[in-house]
Amino acid sequence: MADTTSGSGTTGTTGTTAEPVDPAEWTCPAPLRDHPVVVMGHGGGGALSAELVEHLFVPAYGNETLAGLADSAALSLGGARLAFSTDSYVVRPLFFPGGCIGDLAVNGTVNDLAMSGARAAYLSCAFIIEEGTELSVVRRVAQAVGTAAAAAGVTVATGDTKVVDAGHGDGIFVNTAGIGLIPEGVDIRPQRAEPGDVVIVSGPIGMHGVAIMSVREGLEFGVEVSSDTAPLGGLVQAMLAAAPDLHALRDPTRGGLGTALNEIAAASGTGVVLNERDLPVPEAVSAACGFLGLDPLYVANEGRLVAFVPRGRADAVLAAMRAHPQGAGAAVVGECVADHPGMVVARTGFGGTRVVDLPLGEQLPRIC
Prior knowledge:
Layout: H1 47-61, H2 64-67, E1 73-77, E2 80-89, E3 95-96, E4 99-100, H3 101-114, E5 119-130, H4 135-152, E6 155-164, E7 172-181, E8 198-201, H5 207-216, H6 233-242, E9 248-250, H7 256-268, E10 271-275, H8 283-292, E11 306-309, H9 314-322, E12 331-337, E13 344-347, E14 353-355
Parallel strand pairs: 5-6, 10-13
Antiparallel strand pairs: 1-2, 2-7, 3-4, 5-7, 8-11, 8-12, 9-11, 10-12, 13-14
């Protein structure tokens, strides 16, 4: 915050008193929360995003289904339980190590459905294309959508295409929505996390965000970091086979693992304790985050999940995860506790603890 010990509005060394300070003229390196306009931080998945949803969109739409704020909505229709989710993708660049905006869009929506335990079935896919974009680029992205859908076992059943004037887009934006069936007896939602639950992460974190930054900024870290984008439906089904009573799942995309844990802690009213030494952070990600001044806990992932599992089933779930290709690097990273409800803390390697709060703004814009 700006220094107010001298200058306008204070008594300096000369003993004279200037005009009173106007706090509205102060500057701060972090964005203020009372913005009259949208800022990039509103799309970052952190505190600003949460406030935008909670105080603007939820009151505007006003219904109990939306109020759950899970990755997908659980709906009852014709005697069936359906999961329904939608997401938009504005990643820059369109192509990056390990994937592109096309497979990212498919996997992102499939994974949102999987976080409620659903078996994804159908997707919609809409392209918003900027005038002047090469058709070869559009074709590559469309083919990636088709390939990713086939790999995830879903059908792209409907779609839409719009073209905007040159200069009013950024190549291609993609929106996908999906529906899937929730098996009988499955009740996975953030409100169900409870003290005693074991917190498990499905694999190394931070890879997608670092992969995007490496291409966008032309950075090299000694080894190429590829995005972890992948469908997680099969992994979730394997976990459910080992423990049908999973409590909560989340794919830590925008805002990373730290944000996902805060959302579950807030929804369930429980505390979360992480062990920093147990976090699976690849060496290249750690080096990149050190260079860029980032915390790996807040860097986006696109093929990972975090699970809150009843302690008595944790070993079985961990074994099932490690037996699946998308969970081979699974690790126990913490536990759910009754202390400090709604708060996430991390035990550091030095024996202390630190609060893992929601990030305020946007660490890595346009990463999904």
